[in-house]
Amino acid sequence: DSGVTQTPKHLITATGQRVTLRCSPRSGDLSVYWYQQSLDQGLQFLIQYYNGEERAKGNILERFSAQQFPDLHSELNLSSLELGDSALYFCASSLLAGGIFTQYFGPGTRLTVL
Amino acid sequence: GIQVEQSPPDLILQEGANSTLRCNFSDSVNNLQWFHQNPWGQLINLFYIPSGTKQNGRLSATTVATERYSLLYISSSQTTDSGVYFCAVALGGNKLVFGAGTILRVKS
User: Fold this and answer.
1) What distance in Å separates the CA atoms of residue A114 and residue B101, rounded to the nearest whole number?
2) Is there a contact between B13 and B19 (Cβ–Cβ < 8 Å)?
3) Beta strand extents in chain A (DSSP E only)
4) pLDDT for A22-45, tens place per residue?
5) Hey, is the C-beta of B85 within 8 angstroms of any chain A C-beta?
6) Closest chain B residue to A91, measured at CA
């Protein structure tokens, strides 16, 4: 158990809908990362937050947004969903920002768009 | 951007055998992590090893940063070792760049 929690574990929805994925980092960790794992793209970095502020952005679509709240939990919002958004979405956390810190991954949320 | 290549892409072992997985990366890094993704999809941290050698039970890893590669050794493999092994690196910034993974199947 990494200490990172994600809800829900599974999500099935229809095209055009909007969903919210939730992540709670390990106790004491200030930095949260979101990654997407799909069959065609592999594991890709989406976005990072550090202590409530956006820190880095990767290949995140404009239809996707995220935020980190004062209690440090984070939410990833996916809107106008398409079939191609079906993937495993991981949240990770690290103590501080910066590449030298180990990132610990949550169990993931499996999103299926029908 | 930085490129990460893992080899072999697929590996089938008999239980009890040893194996070596390789990760090559195209630039200097300040973070290198090895993960095991189990059949349920969970990503499990194995090592944080930007340089040097570490051991944890039957697993060990070595990173030679100057030559831009890392090796993951699995000894006396067990069926529970099956899954996908990922190498991921970070250069300066925060995001991890993942390789395509090595699929390991251990047969009993």
Assistant:
1) 28
2) yes
3) 5-7, 10-13, 19-24, 31-38, 42-50, 53-57, 64-68, 74-78, 87-94, 104-105, 109-113
4) 999 999 999 999 999 998 889 999
5) no
6) B43
- Are the Cβ atoms of A2 and B45 closer than 8 angstroms? yes
Q: pLDDT grade, residue A2 (50/70/90)?
A: confident
For residue A95, list chain B residues with Cβ-Cβ distance below 8 A: none
Q: What is the dihedral of CA A14, A111, B101, B30, to 10 degrees?
A: 120
Would you state the pLDDT for residue A99?
Answer: 62
- B43, β-bridge pairs: B37
Compare all CA atoms of chain B with the CA of A40 and give the residue at the minimum distance. Answer: B100
Shortest distance, CA B52 to any CA of chain A (angstroms):
15
Residues 6+ apart with CB under 8 A from A18: A77, A78, A79, A80, A81
User: What count of other Cβ atoms lies within 10 Å of the Cβ of residue A27?
Assistant: 8
Q: Are strands B52-56 and B59-64 parallel, antiparallel or unpaired?
A: antiparallel
Residues of B with Cβ-Cβ distance to A97 under 8 angstroms = 94
